[in-house]
Each structure stands twice: as structure tokens, then as C-alpha cells.
Give the backbone structure.
Amino acid sequence: KISGTAPAKLYLKFLESENVEFQLTSNLKGVELSYPPIGWVKEINGEAELKVSGALGTEFVLNKISLVSPELILEGSAFQKVDGSFTLNFEKLALRDVFDLQLVIENDGALEITGGQLDMQEFLKLPLAENSSKKSAPIKVYLDELKLHEEQIITRFTAALEANGKGRFSGSLNDLASFDGDLERVEEGYS
């Protein structure tokens, strides 16, 4: 959700190739941003730093997308493929002490988490976890660290799930015991 107005600086560079390069920056003061699935809100009087740069013309490219706020950091880029589809690449998506991830989102909604850390106890408190959708897209996960509890950490956690929620997973508990298994979505969640 986006509401309000904020001043921004917009720089445009018109190139001979009929492309236009752009750069936009704003402190977003006067704008309220929220993303309810993760319980994040940037208040209307709060400040955040937004930087976006890219090019328009024969193709659309976002070289840089950066949003830095006290609770959320997002840094990434986007590009349009030859077939017109988009790929979003986030070098960093961090929410408080819940997660700090690197991920790629494809045009069809397929998600690939390519690294990072996630605290499962904090993640389960998010609205996203409490109200998960029955609709899903394929997801591939690689986490450097999945924290289950203070002394229980899964390292090198991998999972590949189909849109129906079925898939395989593996990891190492406290770097002592490796494991793997199958996941299947059931009425109450996963088994």
C-alpha cells in the first residue's frame, strides 16, 4: 500500500539511441508505505531512502532499486528479457531480525532464495505465515542459516517445492547431523 506524497529528485538523460536514462531519489517523508504480509509499515512522517535508476526506450532496465528504512532494507535490480518477461533480482531483502535474504523473482512468480539467514520463530509471527495462501508458485531455497531456536540452527538448508507445495529438502542440524526428506502440503500446513 502506498499513500501520500513526497518530494523527489528526478534526473533524465536523453540519449541519441532514443533511450532515456533516469535516476530518482527521495527521503519518502510524506508517504506511507506498507506491506501487510510481512507486517512492515513506513509511517507517513518517517524517513526512508529511496534510490531508483535505469533506462527506458527499446527495453526497460532498472539498474538499481534501493529502499532503506529502519525496519526494512531492499536492494536489487530488474531487467526485461527478450521475450518481454521480467526478472527481479534482490541482492538484499532484510526485515528486522526476521530475515536477511538474497532472492530472484521470475515473471511467473517463481521464487528462488539464493542465500541468507532466516529466524523461524520470528518468521512464524508474520501475517504471511499465519495467513498463507493456498495458491503458490514454485520455490527453490538455499539458506546459509535457518535458525529454529537459540541452540538449533540448520545450515546449508535447501528445498525445492512445486506450486502444489510438494518437494524435497535437506540441511545440517548444528553442523553435526545431515538430513533430507520430502514435504507435502496438508490441510493444517506441511508434513
